[in-house]
Design goal:
This protein has 16 helices and 14 strands. The chain is an alpha/beta fold. The strands form 4 sheets. The chain has an 8-stranded parallel beta barrel with strand order 5-6-7-8-10-12-13-14, surrounded by 4 helices. A two-stranded parallel ribbon has the order 1-2. Helix 6 links the parallel strand 7 and strand 8. Bound molecules: D-xylose (XLS) and calcium ion (2 copies). One calcium ion binds next to loops. The site of one calcium ion has 6 residues, from helix 9.
Amino acid sequence: MSEYFKEVSKIEYEGPKSDNPLSFKFYNPDEKINGKKMKEHLRFAVAYWHTFQARGADPFGADGSAIRPWDHITDPMDLAKAKVEANFEFCEKLGVPFFCFHDRDIAPEADTLKETNKRLDEIVAVIKDRMKDSDVKLLWGTTNAFGHRRFTNGASTSNNASVFAYAAAQVKKAMEITMELGGQNYVFWGGREGYETLLNTDMKLELDNLARFLRMAVEYRKEIGFDGQLLIEPKPKEPTKHQYDFDTATVLGFLKENGLDKDFKMNIEANHATLAGHTFQHDLRLARINNALGSIDANQGDMLLGWDTDQFPTNIYDTTFAMYEVIKMGGFTKGGLNFDAKVRRASFEPIDLFYGHIAGMDAFAQGLKIASRIVEDDVFDKFISERYASYNTGIGKEIVEGKVGFKELEAYTLENGEPEITSGRQELLESILNQYIIGAK
Ligand code: XLS
Ligand code: CA
Ligand code: CA
């Protein structure tokens, strides 16, 4: 077995004052927070595509800048096998319990679907074998039905029925291998499911076909007995101008309209929520209150840029708010925190992959600690329940219980006159939040 990251040994927790860049400052996997180990709360995953596939390319530097320890390997299948080894070594050294992949990340596409599936089987066997002596597991699998030229006009929303069929064949196989590898979730991110211009688009047919496709996935999942969660990952734009799975609200409405809301939860990515004009927490909250928060793609965007930068998450406010929602839903069941994040083009050395993940893991560990103190002290919820107390008694209770209509409310208002309103206290709450963020509370 080759060792790819020779300069790195197991990353250990050394505490907040450590100067060792290859150590955790806040992530202490076995430390208990509210009776549960940090590693069980956080369920981190490495994204295969960013960590083992991405080359640091951008539209102005298609060749990429990355230097990787497997660069000398030229045969595509040998390279795919090397990356399996590198993945397990990387996850084990970081103590990350999960990884996630697209079918095409783990095995290169061949000339025919049959050949491609054969390649996949070969690599799946290698992964399975490596899993025997590792604690590292598969969080989720998915399909890349957007990179190949055939998907230029979309996959299940393509104008061409044979492309729809091709995508179905691909998802079928990807779901099978996800199940074979013990994957706990299967993700549907839209890829090119959207449009560039309505001048050439039958929106109604495309949306109906998207629902048909998802229904087929639900049926096939039942047929093969895959018990993982099915997740939809919203994104408003990129690669298409308008992606159909725009945001959590849009996806929830679409699922309900098509009778699919019991079958799918959300995989919410921070950078996608912000591209949709929401905060990360907004989409998490909306999913949570609809019992639809399945898993999280942990990254962050750049507020000054209008695209999907997929940066490692380091913003403590965001990780705190995210973990607040996770704690409030009672923790992850099958989901986790997948680092759908890439190191910057200028961070091209292999060691930067470790620094990126350590930064993200530490930021989420801090977020978890802060959020659990906020939940424990009942800071904001207490304020919120007092703020809405008028709905607990009197006319408010009658509104909530559906006992009154416009006529009764008019009579009530005529009798009671001008309502007394209360301050929202935003600035006060923000300064209390800061006390928790800096660790004073
Ligand atoms: C792209 C998406 C993608 C999904 C998996 O923006 O984030 O990487 O997570 O297909
Ligand atoms: Ca993602
Ligand atoms: Ca993204």
